[in-house]
């Protein structure tokens, strides 16, 4: 185990300036002193001392296709030299063709006609989806969302994000959400299979509609004030919790019975993170709205958007000017998004991601057998979780995971003579879950390397 790392003189100058001039409102320093990075490529980033770190979180799954992906970078460079910018009220080819690709894909998969609307990022696209939903439901502003769910930190998005810390000062604005338990089987009641627990959670939700005394249904007129249920098919910030395969199908049946829309938030799990373009595809349901962002442009340009079915978003019901952003559908972002979809259509990307995810999960399961502090591992594609617990294998142990994160950022582990650091992301209801989102381009030797580095961190943590 190494000593505490000290910032270089050059880095310290920058850190002093940050302390004086930068807002900390959008900043969380997981380690002290924080690292300052200078370059990136593939699955790696390098700090100002040229120390390499294997990144297993890839900018919260925004860089699904690897840092400095040559093909996607070149698409951006080409667009810069042709049409780098144009006001969003004017058309350009990229906006139309990217919309077509997403809408045609949805028609093929869900059997629904729909349209695509762009904005500059995930939270902003959640805001647009709230407008579409309210507009299509005669102004209803009550929503359902899940405990552990995360949809962003703009005002509307905070309102449907379950973290009270995020909502306490800002979130009660316009929309309000009722938060419903998610089928988090590892922390659910004992004695049920995963599928049984999923059905149990749906049955508890359905009880809200049984009578006027259960809370959300007026049987005299057959109406509810709730407009939509916002779901992350795989919970992201909540700890990459993967529900049983029967869950959303049963939930959607209840929603359809009561005229409540399903909005699938794919901002973190979309674009093949789980082995499919949209993670909701695993669950055999038809969403009414899909919200996307992050990996659409591999992190090269802030661009997100929504797909909504035709009845909700056609120009008669959602007319021009319903919402607007100066940089929405900008040509740099749409050019990269188009190239990404073309790239992933040329090979069986889903099969590749599922095979790598299975291999990585088997490695995590082996670590779980050897380290009792790992209470649970799970994964779908390359969205993987590793829950760190106390000696009983269940009690959340945030302190141990914090220690592992700090040790990984020291950059002093050695594998096969190579000195490396390891970047991990922390998630979960108790902040005790390693949420693993490696590059989808990660090689099998790099997966092996990541597992060896994780093993070293676990050894340090259990022997400290």
From TrEMBL:
Report the GO molecular function annotations: identical protein binding; pyridoxal phosphate binding; transaminase activity
Report the InterPro entries cross-referenced here: Aminotrans_3, Aminotrans_3_PPA_site, Class-III_PLP-dep_AT, PyrdxlP-dep_Trfase, PyrdxlP-dep_Trfase_major, PyrdxlP-dep_Trfase_small
Q: Which residues cross the membrane?
A: none
UniProt cross-references to CDD domains, sorted A to Z: OAT_like
Pfam families, per the entry: Aminotran_3 (PF00202)
Needed cofactors: pyridoxal 5'-phosphate
Q: Which UniProt keywords apply?
A: Aminotransferase, Pyridoxal phosphate, Transferase
* Family classification: Belongs to the class-III pyridoxal-phosphate-dependent aminotransferase family.
Q: What is this protein called?
A: Adenosylmethionine-8-amino-7-oxononanoate aminotransferase
Can you name the source organism?
Pseudomonas libanensis
């Amino acid at each position: 185990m190494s000593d505490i790392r000290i910032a270089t003189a050059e880095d310290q100058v920058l850190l002093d300036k940050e302390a004086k001039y930068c807002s900390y409102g959008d900043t969380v320093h997981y380690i002290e002193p924080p690292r300052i990075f200078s370059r990136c490529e593939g699955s790696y980033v390098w700090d100002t001392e040229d120390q390499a770190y294997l990144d297993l979180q890839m900018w919260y799954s925004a860089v699904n296709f690897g840092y400095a992906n040559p093909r996607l970078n070149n698409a951006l460079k080409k667009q810069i030299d042709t049409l780098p910018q144009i006001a969003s009220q004017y058309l350009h080819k990229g906006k139309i063709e990217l919309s077509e690709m997403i809408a045609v894909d949805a028609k093929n998969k869900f059997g629904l006609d729909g349209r695509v609307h762009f904005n500059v990022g995930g939270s902003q696209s959640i805001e647009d989806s709230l407008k579409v939903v309210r507009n299509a439901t005669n102004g209803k502003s009550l929503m359902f969302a899940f405990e552990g769910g995360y949809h962003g930190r703009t005002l509307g998005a905070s309102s449907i994000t379950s973290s009270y810390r995020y909502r306490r000062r800002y979130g009660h604005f316009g929309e309000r959400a009722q938060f419903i338990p998610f089928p988090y089987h590892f922390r659910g009641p004992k004695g049920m299979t995963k599928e049984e627990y999923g059905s149990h959670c749906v049955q508890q939700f359905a009880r809200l509609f049984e009578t006027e005394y259960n809370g959300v249904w007026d049987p005299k007129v057959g109406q509810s004030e709730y407009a939509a249920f916002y779901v992350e098919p795989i919970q992201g910030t909540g700890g990459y919790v993967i529900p049983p395969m029967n869950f959303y199908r049963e939930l959607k049946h209840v929603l359809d019975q009561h005229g409540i829309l399903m909005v699938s938030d794919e901002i973190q799990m979309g674009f093949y993170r789980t082995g499919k373009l949209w993670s909701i595809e695993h669950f055999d349901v038809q969403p009414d709205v899909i919200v996307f962002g992050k990996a659409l442009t591999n992190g090269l340009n802030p661009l997100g958007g929504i797909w909504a079915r035709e009845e909700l978003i056609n120009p008669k019901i959602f007319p021009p000017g319903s919402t607007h952003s100066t940089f929405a559908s900008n040509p740099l972002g749409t050019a990269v998004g188009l190239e990404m979809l073309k790239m992933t259509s040329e090979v069986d990307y889903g099969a590749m991601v599922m095979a790598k995810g299975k291999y990585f999960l088997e490695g995590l399961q082996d670590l779980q057998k050897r380290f009792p502090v790992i209470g649970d591992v799970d994964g779908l594609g390359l969205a993987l979780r590793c829950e760190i617990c106390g000696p009983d294998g269940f009690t959340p142990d945030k302190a141990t995971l914090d220690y592992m994160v700090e040790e990984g950022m020291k950059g002093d582990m050695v594998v096969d003579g190579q000195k490396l650091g390891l970047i991990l992301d922390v998630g979960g209801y108790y902040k005790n879950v390693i949420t693993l989102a490696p590059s989808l381009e990660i090689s099998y030797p790099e997966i092996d390397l990541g597992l060896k580095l994780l093993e070293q961190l676990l050894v340090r943590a259990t022997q400290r």
